[in-house]
Amino acid sequence: MSEMWVNMGPQHPMTHGLWNLRVRIDGEMIVEVDPEMGYLHRGIEKISEDRHYNEVITLMDRTCYVAGMAWEHLYVMGAEKALGIVPPERAEWIRMLSEEFQRLASHIMWYAAFVQDLGLMSPFLYGMRDRDLILDLFQSYTGGRLTYEYMRVGGVRNDLPEGFPAQARQVLDWLEPRLVEYDRLCMGSEIFRRRCDGLGVLKANDCVRLGVTGPMLRSAGSKRDIRKDRPYSRYSQVEFDVATADSSDVTGRYLVRMEEMRQSIRILRQALDWLEHHPGPVLADRLPRWLGAPYAPMGREGYLLKRNYPKGVGLSAIEEPHGEACAYVVNEGGEHPYRVKFRSPVFANLSACSHYLVGYHIADIPPIMGSVDVCVGEVDR
Amino acid sequence: MVTNDVSFVEIETLRSREFLPAAKEALGSMIKEQGESKLIRPVFNWAGRNSLFPLHWGLACCAIEFAAAFGARWDAERFGVVPRSSPRQCDLLIVNGTVTWKVAHKLIALYEQMPEPKWVIAMGNCATGGGPFRTAYSVVPGVDKLVPVDVYIAGCPPRPEALLDGILRLEALIRERGA
Amino acid sequence: MEWNAEGVRAQLAAAGAPGILSVDPFDGAAARVRFSPESASALFPVLRDALGFTHLSTVGGIDWVERYEVFYLLWSDAAKRYLLLSADLDAKTPHIETASTVWPSANWHEREAWELVGIGFDHHPDLRHLLMPDGYSFHPLQRSFKLHEPEDLEVKVRHV
User: Fold this and answer.
1) Both ends of chain B: CA-CA distance in Å?
2) What is the domain extent for residue B44?
3) How far apart are CA B59 and CA A122, in angstroms?
């Protein structure tokens, strides 16, 4: 039989979002792939040019809807650098805490969706159950489950509620043995190992060449982690290890994410200890009125006092759950950012997909693409 | 439009072991009274509204809450809602996210592939009216520009409870309007 | 070796990098290097091989109305620093040599910059639409492209 093109998407259970993987197959073998993106292109970078600095945070939650806190953190750090604002110490710790909780939630969501693709149903139910506990914590101090609008340029909106550290520790104590259970469910499963071992191999030098970052790069043995290499927030003050594996295949990516969750719990415990003993302000004082008040800035009234801020350019980078994310914020004075550019890790990881898909069977596509952890919101923006 | 003049309320409140005998008796007596044509519509309506199969299709943020609704805590399957991956097996299209112009014709194609009778739920602000991306150059300001919508759910994103409420409202709507 | 503006300037001079216009300090990166777009194809291999910036994070464009700017964000694993590269392009037909022959990861980033900002990349292997549908003729991130209120739109309702 001759070769043929198969469309996998935009409505396909494998895609986990809105994109189309066009595959040319020869029998069962993948000969060529051509991903077709843009079905969720919402013009976030363009809308940002029409929004006030704090209003862009609303869009950031929706850019990557499984890692809203991380993207808020990325943007507010970039905007603070562009505007020359320094957030207070406690706000930095709360941001780090939020980002790590988000990493846990995102990885558990990935686990639930990925393992379900392989035909194991109970990990989905376990994963969603445990993720909801983290979302409950988010809800207790931000009011939202997915979209928080919590961080502000110059700090965070409000302090953690009373009794939060105890509540959070309870959740972490519950999660830690669950991770062992997850591991037993997967690594002890013959089906899982047979469908994942040795698939989607992308070696470290290819990863660097193709711009692939995050768990995919670390599963190839590289130790690049922005949290360690270029510490932001307060990551230089907490102890953690960079999770790596050396098989550079689907199983390796799974192991890296599992280990990252354990390290996140380790960071979270240290952050909770610090936050318990260091009360203080969470929003920088002496901000202009349109940036300062904790609740007002979302409305138009707060902005009436227009200031000409000194011009500046802000560059920030974080280790998002999917990899390296960067923001480039151009401030030309005035209340709107002149240009906001985001670097999405999944965008780069997906652009390399012909290098880790070609040569495998068509039935290997769900595990391989699942291990990439595609979040289309941040690819298309 | 068929008004639901046959009462099926009593069947719904039955325990499972009492169901089959009661249904048999009710059906038998009704066939005698009314003949088949009047009977089939209400039965169809009752069966349809209690087993809505939505299309398994994640568009954007709301899809995560859509997934959470099928997770352990909310368990939407207890309302007979089971997501299916093929539009041929579905009678409910839950538009859970921002619809762009690029995906618009695919959405219409999927809707047209679904067999009648079919319903559409616009989940979240984006599907209802464009949401925070309303002014963007690539976003359809509301999915009702493309397909007829039966139930709108507000929220950005709506909580899973809101989705379940929307599904229950759709069931009430089907009961009222007929399939 | 110092990874600040002076250090980068000295290294660029030692490696014989062509077309460097200025090297300024930049918060959050080793330096901000401005170069002339004509020397792009000669400069990129020097940055990758001599200075060790093996990873290209992103490529983006800015419309400054009277000119365009294209910027590249590079990362060096050895130095653990970012480097910001930028070049000014003329407003009429902004174009520059592609970086995807040196860093293959630039492929999609350049497709996006071409599509949204309207910067042409010469000798790009596959310069076609990525995010917008084929045949979309606007470049939305140009300043002349204004956002509309959806009420202005005439939506043709299709009855199904």
Assistant:
1) 8
2) 9-49
3) 24
- B138 DSSP assignment: T
Whole-number Å distance between alpha carbons of C94 and C89: 5
Does residue B150 lie in a domain region? yes
Residue C42 has pLDDT above 50, yes or no: yes
* Alpha-carbon gap, residue C121 to C96, rounded angstroms: 5
What's the CATH fold of domain A4-380?
A: Cytochrome-c3 Hydrogenase; chain B (1.10.645)
For residues A202 and A352, the answer to whether their CB atoms sit within 8 Å is yes
In a domain, B2, yes or no: no
Chain B residue numbers with beta carbons less than 8 Å from the beta carbon of C155 are 141, 145
ipTM: 0.86
Domain count, chain B: 2
Closest partner residue to B136 among A43, A112, A145, by Cβ?
A: A43
What single letter denotes the amino acid at residue A4? M
Interface of A with B (CB under 8 A): 10-13, 16-18, 38-44, 46-47, 50, 58-59, 61-62, 65-66, 109, 112-113, 124-126, 128-129, 131-132, 145-147, 376-377
Nearest CA in chain C to A325: C57
Q: Is B137 on the interface with A (CB under 8 A)?
A: yes
The pLDDT tens digits along chain B (179 residues) read 444 554 444 445 556 677 778 777 877 777 777 666 666 667 777 777 888 899 888 888 888 899 889 888 888 888 889 888 888 889 899 998 899 988 888 898 899 888 878 899 999 898 988 888 888 888 888 888 888 898 999 988 899 999 999 999 998 888 887 65
Query: Which secondary-structure segment (H or E) carries A93?
Result: helix A89-117
In chain B, residues with a C-beta closer than 8 Å to the C-beta of C139 are: none
